[in-house]
Design brief:
It holds the Pfam family Vps62. With about 475 residues, this protein is mainly beta. It contains 6 helices and 28 strands. The chain folds into 2 domains: about 325 residues, no CATH class; about 110 residues, Beta Barrel (Lipocalin). Strand 22 and strand 23 form a beta hairpin.
Length: about 475
Amino acid sequence: MTQPGYPEGFQGGQGPAVGFRGMRLAVAVMTAAVLVAGCEDEAPPAPRSAGESSPAPDDAALAARFAPLVWLAGGEAFQPGDAGRFIAASELWFHELCGTKDPHHRLATEVDPARLGGRPSPYTKTACVDGVREFSSTEDLDAGRGGGSGFYLELDDNDDARRGDVGSAPVYWEKYDSGDGRTAFVYWLFYPYNQFVNRGRTVNKHEGDWERVAVRLRGAEPIGVTFWKHGEPPCLVEWGDVEQADGHPVAYSALGSHGSYHRAGGWDATPAEVLEVPIPEGAQPITDITSPGTRWPTWERARSVVDEPWWGYRGKWGSQPGRAGADGPRGPYPGRSEAVFATEPCADPLPLPTASPGPPVPTSSAAPAVIDGAYLGTWRSPEPVDQPTTDKEYRVELTLRQGALGERVGDIRYPGLECSGSLSLVEVRPTELVVAERIDAEPVHQCVTEGIVTLTRTPDGLSWAYISIGGVMASAKLVRS
């Protein structure tokens, strides 16, 4: 049983058994590999995109009309961004295995987006093996973990470019035709950086992250939405069941991983391929978390992807260190196969664990919430936190202020562990307040980064109950500071 300030599997200063740790590491690495593949999964060929020509004005208007409202999760550190800005902050490299030579070759320090897409001519690289074959940036190649050859963009160590900016980020739309009277607009969502931390461990982190949702139409009328998520194939939500905001479908971007879902809540993101591997007791499945944090009205900056200067580039977006969970994926390009018209219905979210009954995450993005003034202010635990499975002594201090669902409403600190972080509002109940904790400073110990805190009023102050996404529990009595 882990305390809030220690990694999952750490038990009061005693590390987990070597065999357990090795098995768990294998599970995490395999999961990371599949989750990155989920950003660029290749579905069986079936509908095709509109092609190279610019879309008709009617298409642009329709695409904007049904562009999604995307909710970034509360606590999301890496927001969506502009793919053009990513290119401007990147260098173009080529990966090629060639004997004992370094497989990574820098081709350009200032990248021309039009040349990436082959206009007027693409970037090229002569094969080092025979000195004859010429590779092109518009060619289907495969750089990365599996070896092979290919182009990739490597982001210069630029924290501003990595973090993105939801206030200026565009959405890139592409039209598909089923051939049977149905059409769809695929909305490509670009995040310059992906850092998926789950239950205190990094599942994957990589540059470049392309996610998507698709709105299906018959004529000009919407009939459903396709969601691409982690661990499973794309799925369908019929239009009548889609959460909407002024006629726009609502999508939720998972915390850290950016997978797209149709509701707020918790989602099993562990692929079946990983579940076939025996998971030791205590190693919980990977979980995607969605919540109404930051609002992203994508229709305000909806762009046709076929009109982007880099359209036609078939290389990777992000560095290719060759480690599971670390290679950047492919993005949209001409001829990319997509299961746009998937028929499998989307599953309902899993309830997030709480320290008391009731679902902690609201399913409506529009529901306001007001925190009772009795909770506001600064609180501390005069006695150490009660966690029977550890002998480590630590306390908790927190401050709460007014705010809406999904917003940051407070700060938390653990004296004795020296970890600190933020609190985001999840739910207001008649006698309880539920907040999501995210640790963002850990100068002494590596801390579990995600958990749920339930606060209950008592005659003497507040009762504090903590549970991590992986099931770690702790409690304390709080008094006003």
